[in-house]
Every structure is written in structure tokens, then in C-alpha cells.
Amino acid sequence: MYAAGGALVVALEFYNLGLRTSAGAAAITPMGLILSLSAVAVLLATPSQAWARMYR
Fold this sequence. Notes:
By secondary structure, the protein is an all-alpha fold. It has helices spanning 2-23, 28-54.
């Protein structure tokens, strides 16, 4: 699960980087912010599920 979450974050951020390089600063506010917040949400959710599974 942790590897899948990490791979998803890498994919989201590569897409974010491609969007930023193609559209410039205009891509930051609508889509770039959504992609970054979703990457943070995946990073926060992945370890918590692993820790919860460890303490069962």
C-alpha cells in the first residue's frame, strides 16, 4: 500500500510539473493547487493506514 501511494504521488507531481512547464504560471492556481493538495492527502493517508495495520 505504501509503494502504491508513493507511486501515485510521483505520478501526480510529474503531471503537475508537465502542466507547469507547458502552461506557465497560469497553471498554478486552479489545477496545480488541486494536484499538490491531492498529493499531500495521499501522503498523509498512506502512512496512517500502515500504522493502523501494524497496531491491530
